[in-house]
Amino acid sequence: MKRTILTIDDSRTMREMLKVTLASSGFTVVQAEDGQHGIEVLEGMEIEPDVIITDINMPRKDGFQFIEEVRADASRRAIPILVLTTESDAEKKQRARLAGATGWIVKPFDPTKLVDAINRVAA
Amino acid sequence: MDAMAEIRQTFFEECAEQLAELEAGLLAIENGEADSDTVNAVFRAVHSIKGGAGAFCLDDLVHFAHVFETTLDEMRTGRLDSSEKVVKIMLRSADALADLVTAARDGGTADAERNAGLIDELKGLVALAKGEEPPAPTAAASGGSTDGPVYDDGMGDFDFTPVAVDISDLMGIGGDNKFRIVFKPSPRMYAKANEANRVLRDVYALGEAKVSCNTSEVPLLTAIDPEGAYLTFTIELSTAEPEEKVREVFEFVEFDCDLSIEAVLDEPDGDIEADDPDIAEILARIRAAPDGEPAPEPAHEPDEEAPVAAKASQPEPEHAKAAPKPAAPPAPSAPAAAKADAGGDGKGGASAGGAAQTIRVDLERVDRLIDLVGELVIHQVMLSQRAYQAGLARASDVAVGFDELEQLTREIQDSVMAIRAQPVKSVFQRLPRLVREVADISGKQVRLVTEGEWTEVDKTVIERLADPLTHMIRNAIDHGLEKPADRLAAGKPEEGVVRVAAMHRSGRIVIEISDDGAGINRKRVKETAIKKGLVPAEANLSDEETDNLIFLPGFSTADKISSLSGRGVGMDVVKRSIQALGGRVSITSRPGKGSTFTMSLPLTLAVLDGMIVSVGDQTVVVPLTAIIETLQPKASEVKSFGGDARLVQVRDTFMPLVDVARELGYSHDLASATGGVAILVEAENGARSALLVDGIQGQRQVVIKSLEANYGRVPGIAAATILGDGRVALILDVDAVVATSRVEGNFFNSGMKHAAE
Fold first, then answer.
1. CA dist B274 to B166, B232, B278, B702, Å?
2. What Å distances lie between residue A8 and A92, A94, B153, B232, B572, CA to CA?
3. Where, per the database record, does this protein carry Phosphohistidine (chain B) (predicted)?
4. A21, B345: Cβ pair inside 8 Å?
5. Closest CB to B337 among A23, A119, A122
6. Is B213 helix (H, G, I), strand (E, B) or coil?
7. Does B743 touch chain A (CB under 8 A)?
8. Whose CA is closest to B474, among B566, B412, B554, B369?
9. Are residues B294 and B372 in the same domain?
10. Which among B115, B306, B441, B450 has the fewest CB atoms less than 10 Å away?
11. Based on the structure, what is the number of domains in chain B?
């Protein structure tokens, strides 16, 4: 069965880029536009995504809040969450980690590394 | 378009949106209306641009955006205040960023010198912000302790009893670097969906590894916490990779485990794999966990998988097969994916707060729909006309049905046209930057006020509105407003106001550009016009006529006042480009109070207000915007000059009389001037002619059909349309006809002079 990735990014460019990259690697991609939307999409999914990839800086609900909210539900602790972050943001990595992120991908991402990272965390 | 090109286009579209947001936000900050949401939005805009630019390797853009973002971050954290000076630098940086985006899109180059200067200024601001407050150690640097005791891992003292998993006899790809790694996952690690076995697999991939597992902490089954973590792994790794690579493996988990990585100089001690309890026994203990319970923790997995992974001694975990490596960037299936995204993306744009639902549709599709609706309207009219000709009673139910159908089709037409309509905001939002630049160069203080930015008009009109609008604003600041000192002297505030307002008025969009400057210097305008021979020295002109002299071709080319106007564009060009859109422009001015330019444009270029005229046995449409007046020439007003050239006298001037039937090849003979109607038209360049036609049928709105797209270019014909009765009518290209009639300009000019005498 195709694995499903939920991507959350407020940038249309990033969403499309993730979609194209992931779809061409055989993943099913579900998209959300910010943390709040991400929660809504997640609630609406019949089967939990295999991996969630989320941006940090987003309107309404940022990536940290999103991750915390997901992790607050014990049944969702097993969903790997990768954070998309820019290189210089060591502080953000740290905060994402504290919020419960599984790993991170550096923006701009190398498609091969992105898929590697997903394979590293996805069951 | 391949997927990458499509994403690239999306990127630039998004950049435009972000730049607009950036500017709007900065302006709000400048006006002191900023809250933290605004500052965040501004930051995010630059951040987004940087993110996308990175993906396309637009290094200049990334670099600039990065510095800009860093500075904005200082403002976001409150270390940098939003004083006027700071915001000014940021506004200029936003302009520079916009230039970089444009350069990246169109392949041009941006002003590297200015950008370098701005980068220094931005960095200066960061330094300033940091200097004001003692350089707070940004967590960025430390990244260290995560000691949020979120989870209690329930560990007491432990007795280290390692379990050896010997893989040394398997294919080794070891190297000279040897490390001893002690890795003790905490429950936190599992709570973040990381797993020890995956980490170990990555370690195996690095080289030759011996892993031993200390299971001494595993409690009795009854005491096992399903979410606990009880194992400690000790790894002796021999690898060709440097320490960073080893640390990288633990990158995701290093703060959620106890980890030590030490370079080992000697051969690893042999004591680790010595006296271990039987691994099978431990596995049995763990597997005995009650069914239905979640696995205690994946602690058993390393044991299970280690041999597998080790045997293969290569990084590929088996499930990696399920997800083939991406064949480099996007595959061909991608456009469809992107398309689907575009369609399914219907959730309101994040910036709009999720309120308005929008979809993005290709313009081509909309145009096709507009075409089809146009056809529908025509067929509906034809159908009812034929039914009446066939004897349908006006009072019949069918006739009522026709009326309703007509009403409905008109409504559909209007609604479809509305799809193409966009608020003029997209043009208006470029204006603040323009005003800033022009104000800077001209040394004037200017406040821009915009009104009616949500007024909607057809997309093509919007696109072509920018140039004339830009020029008029430049003109308003450059020529309209006075220097600050002069303003003070005139009892006005130093800061001048340029107001741009859009509104709908009788089926057209009207845009007014007004300034509170000195108004038109009529004396000077008239002198200039006389000097250039545009008006006779003795001409007696009204104020309005004098003001409108500035639109005459050749008026504004000479003694240019400032560098701004050095672009060789005069108001005549502005007027022409507005006329090309089917628009009109005029000026009113009050000395000392300022001037107002008013331009009015059709709401769409898909339909046109036309005068329907008869020419021979044909019906021709003359665009209403070109028509000045119509008249019936008297024999005494028409003068013939050698051959077929004729002039018609209109009050005190003469102009060429163009026989349209002959011009278009409908007839060989010169029509009698007195039998028809003369339509006075003005071409875009201001040249006037009188068009002789047989009669006027009426005035109506027609749908423009491109002749070039459906047939071919015909000189003298701009386009075609289909009339209500289904007949095709040609729309006259007034410019071309007027130009032909004035080909021998000198002849006519001299002729006119003679005639006038």
1. 11, 16, 12, 95
2. 16, 19, 32, 35, 52
3. 47
4. no
5. A23
6. strand
7. no
8. B566
9. no
10. B441
11. 5
Could you read off the pLDDT of B134-151 as tens digits, one per residue? 434 333 333 333 333 333
Distances (CA, A) of B233 to B164, B210, B217: 9, 10, 12
| CB contact (8 A) between residue B192 and residue A101 | yes
Question: B206 and B311 share a domain?
Answer: yes
B149 CB burial (10 A radius; 0-12, 13-18, 19+): exposed
pLDDT tens-digit profile of B266-317?
544 444 443 445 555 555 555 554 544 444 444 444 444 444 434 444 444 4
- Boundary residue ending a domain (B602, B635, B655): B602
pLDDT of residue B501: 93
Domain span at B93: 3-134
Mean pLDDT of chain B: 74
Asked if residue B484 is part of any domain, the answer here is: yes
Percent of chain B with pLDDT over 90: 5
Alpha carbons B554 and B570: distance in angstroms, whole number: 8
- Written as six digits, the tokens of B507 are 């089926």
Out of B383, B404, B422, a domain closes at B422
On whether residue B651 sits in a domain, the answer given is yes
Contact A20 B139 (CB under 8 A): no
Rounded to a whole number of angstroms, the distance from the CA of A46 to the nearest CA of chain B is: 18
Q: Which residues of A touch B16 (CB under 8 A)?
A: none
CB within 8 A of A97, min separation 6: which ones? Answer: B146, B192, B255, B256
**Between B44, B326, B341, which is nearest A111 by CB?**
B326
Does A10 sit within 8 Å of B192, measured CB to CB? no
Which tokens is B420 given?
């193409």
| Least Cα separation, residue B151 to chain A (angstroms) | 11
Least Cα separation, residue B260 to chain A (angstroms): 19
Q: What is the CATH number of the domain that holds B109?
A: 1.20.120.160
Residues from chain A that touch B329, judged by Cβ atoms under 8 A, are 20-21, 111
Task: Output the pLDDT for position B315.
Answer: 44
- The answer to whether residue B395 neighbours chain A at the CB level (below 8 Å) is no
The predicted-structure confidence for A37-54, as pLDDT tens digits, reads as follows 999 888 888 888 989 999
**Same domain as B231, residue B94:** no
Is the minimum CB–CB distance between B47 and chain A shorter than 8 Å?
yes
pLDDT the model gives residue B281: 57
Q: In angstroms, how far is the first alpha carbon of chain B from the final one?
A: 65
- Is the separation of the CB atoms in B685 and B593 below 8 Å? no
- CA nearest B231: which of B255, B251, B257? B257
CB pairs under 8 A between A and B: 178
One domain for residues B549 and B431 = yes
Could you tell me if B696 and B613 are in contact, meaning their C-beta atoms sit under 8 angstroms apart? yes
> What CATH number did the domain enclosing B648 receive?
2.30.30.40
What does the DSSP assignment read for B66-113?
A: HHHHHHHHHHHTTSS---HHHHHHHHHHHHHHHHHHHHHHHT----HH
Confirm whether pTM is higher than 0.80.
no
Domains of chain A, each with CATH number or no CATH:
4-121 (3.40.50.2300)
Extract the tokens encoding B280.
Answer: 């099978």
pLDDT, tens only, B721-739: 887 677 889 999 887 888 7
B344 domain-assigned: no
Q: What is the pLDDT of residues B219-263, one digit of tens each?
A: 877 778 877 888 888 888 888 777 877 887 787 777 778 888 888
Tell me the HSE value of B561 on the side-chain side, using a 13 A CA sphere. 11
B156 occurs within a structural domain: no
- Tell whether the model's pLDDT for residue B84 goes beyond 80: no
The confidence score (pLDDT) of residue A8 equals 92
Phi, psi of B507 (to 5 degrees): 70, 10
